[in-house]
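I'll show an entry:

:::
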Amino acid sequence: MNILYSSDDNYAEFTGISMLSLFENNKDAKEIHVYLLESGISEENKEKLLKITQLYERKIHMIQMLDAEEMAGTSLFISNHVSLSSFSRLFAARLLPDTIDKILYLDSDIIIQGSLKQFWESDMKKFMVSGVHSVYSQNTNRAIMLKNRDAYVNAGVLLINLKRWRDWQVEKKFIDFARVFNGKVPVEDQGILNGVLCKHIKLAHPKYNYTPAYHENDYKNLKKLWNREVYVEEIVAEAKENPVVLHYASEDKPWQTGYNGPYKNEFLHYKDISPWAAAELRAKILTRPPSPPKKSLKARVRCILPQILLVGLQVVMHQYRYYLHVRKLKKNAKAKGISWKSWMFRESIDE
């Protein structure tokens, strides 16, 4: 089993705790090779990571991460709780040895509490990537030129067909996609990955990327958020009852003081048996002040227009904004010499 993590020194502790949970719950795996794309991890933390792999008789390969913006050829926008290092997964085909045909990428804010064998052995011959469908994707879909029924996965857990990425030069399409958006792609690297590969994604069982959104919403609400039935109710119930991969995919993390989200004890359990057991919990840092509440267009004109006219106006404005958005992207693509359709990679490649 080949595993990919990406981390700087700030996240090295949590990468190590995640890695420990992986080893602890996959002892039956014949081999586990961890490939760590690292940027500035201290020697002390590197020694701790090595200690964990030696304890479980596994292998770790540390690879110096290249600058993501240099590789992309453009500046890249990142939000509060996203590190620039997360973009490195888009360049996995370049950074990893050519001998690796398949790899499982895991975010650092993850705890594994079950076997990954079945997921790892998924048939990926006709797919570029496998992942769990995101809950909150409707607004992003339109912004990155996806249709409502296109797959849109959370990029925190990805089974990647590296051979197919290399054969079809997917990295170039990722770069072109980012350049068309001038680096300001909605939801950062996750938006790029889904925007390019939406037609070549295999949906995985939600138990392999169980996020707070799945935990907090019942099935009825999930269907509303998806705006369709992505998974049948029985599959979601299985994930809720027995999640294999816990993904703390929000700004609130279990290593922060005052964290009251789900599965805090699961994280603390693996922290307590890790080399970072004595490390104190961290204070939550607000890197960006909260924006003052804005009065919506609907609230401002409700007293003037009848409801039916208001709804009609909103539809027209929504379509007009989308028209301007597409026109801007086409203009950017033309200015950069990028074919309008080539960067979207929506054609079928079944062999």
Observations:
- The two ends are 26 Å apart (CA to CA).
- Residues 232 and 245 are 19 Å apart (CA to CA).
